[in-house]
Design a protein that fits this description.
Layout lengths: L1 H18 L7 H4 L14 E6 L7 H16 L4 E6 L7 H9 L4 E6 H4 L18 H8 L2 H14 L1 E12 L1 E4 L13 E4 L3 H9 L3 E4 L5 H6 L5 E4 L1 H6 L8 E3 L5 E9 H6 L2 H35 L3 E3 L4 H6 L10 H14 L1
Parallel strand pairs: 1-2, 1-3, 6-7, 6-8, 9-11
Antiparallel strand pairs: 3-10, 4-10, 5-8, 5-9
Helix pairs in contact: 3-12
Protein name: Tripartite ATP-independent transporter solute receptor, DctP family
InterPro entries: DctP_fam, TRAP_DctP, TRAP_DctP_sf
GO biological process, one term: transmembrane transport
Length: 345
């Protein structure tokens, strides 16, 4: 009996080994997280990052730095592929893919992420910040750290860094916009998030949801009267070809984060997780500094193309949007908290 048991046990082990039942080395390739060759080399991973802006945008330049440094520091075992111009989909679509477990990431602004964590949307509130330094104080605070943890644990969204400053949002149109009254009856494209919609409507316009890739044709064909966006995106999309005026209302400071799926991130070795986090923060800082350094250059280029730059008095716009925070539960209190962080940290 003992001899028979030994024979059966040996046969069972051989069967399991032949079927691969004793190893999980091949599972990564099937779910898109990575693969491992038969020679026992380190497992490899791929991250696809899709963004709505063009290759000429500072955000793309920052992502190129991220790609280069991550691939170098992981000896090529973590490959980063970049997809500009909405070629991987619009931001919310990519976020949904990340949540479902795909090896994808994107640059998402706080308002879009508020679909999963309502409080974070306040970061895109009108006239909340005056500069990048104030933004950094808040995104480096304990308040933001709590939001980040909740997004990972409750929504499977991992923020790698949230220091990608895309610039101040302004109005692009074929009508001169100098006061909120000038926006009456105007259909403006804005990001499809509640706080953007409330802000634009408080300023006097009709907020219209439209993918960024469709804005050029939308203005050209009269589907919309204009849009609101930052310098780099406006120039990158060549909107100076279809719009005559660029009114610097500075109504929102667009701050975004490099976001991936939390499950995918957790599948990386700890060493790779540290590299990805460090390089995401460094690349975000680089991209943000590029945005700030190139602001006047973008204006000059758009003026050279025939666009008129308007610098209106922003006080009436600030006054018009004061009530936006009251439209969201808890936002007035959060605004006070953020003001305290800015003033004291």
């Amino acid at each position: 009996m003992k001899q028979l048991f030994s024979i059966l046990t040996t046969a069972s082990l051989l069967f399991l080994a032949a079927c691969g039942g004793g190893s999980s080395s091949g599972s990564g390739e099937e779910n898109g997280e990575g693969s491992q060759d038969s020679g026992g080399s380190e497992e490899s991973y791929t991250l696809q990052i899709g963004i709505v802006v063009s290759e000429n945008d500072p955000m793309y330049e920052g992502l190129e730095q991220f790609k280069s440094n991550v691939e170098e520091k992981t000896d090529g075992n973590l490959t980063v592929e970049l997809f500009p111009n909405s070629s991987l989909g619009d931001t919310p679509e990519i976020q949904e893919q990340a949540i479902s477990g795909a090896n994808v990431g994107t640059l998402a602004d706080a308002a879009i992420m508020s679909d999963y964590k309502q409080e974070i949307g306040i970061l895109q509130g009108p006239y909340l910040f005056e500069n990048y330094e104030q933004i950094q104080k808040v995104t480096n605070s304990d308040l933001f750290a709590g939001w980040k943890e909740d997004l990972a644990s409750e929504n499977n969204l991992q923020i790698l860094s949230f220091n990608w400053f895309q610039g101040s949002r302004h109005i692009i149109s074929n009508n001169e916009i100098r006061t909120p009254e000038d926006l009456n009856g105007q259909n403006l494209r804005t990001i499809g998030a509640d706080i953007f919609t409330e802000t634009i409507e408080a300023m006097g316009a009709n907020a219209t949801g439209l993918d960024w890739a469709e804005v050029y044709s939308g203005i050209q064909q009269g589907v919309i009267d204009g849009a609101e966006a930052q310098h780099s995106a406006t120039h990158g999309a060549s909107l100076y070809e279809v719009a005559d005026y660029y009114s610097k209302t500075n109504h929102i400071q667009l701050i975004t984060g490099l976001v991936v799926g939390a499950d995918w991130f957790s599948s990386l070795p700890e060493e790779y997780q540290n590299i990805v986090n460090e390089e995401a923060k460094a690349a975000g800082q680089y991209a943000s500094e590029t945005v700030m350094d190139s602001s006047s250059e973008y204006e000059s280029m758009m003026e050279d193309e025939g666009m008129t730059i308007i610098e209106p008095d922003t006080a009436p716009f600030k006054e018009a949007t004061k009530g936006v925070y009251e439209e969201f539960e808890g936002y007035p209190e959060l605004r006070d908290q953020i003001t305290e962080i800015i003033e004291n940290e």
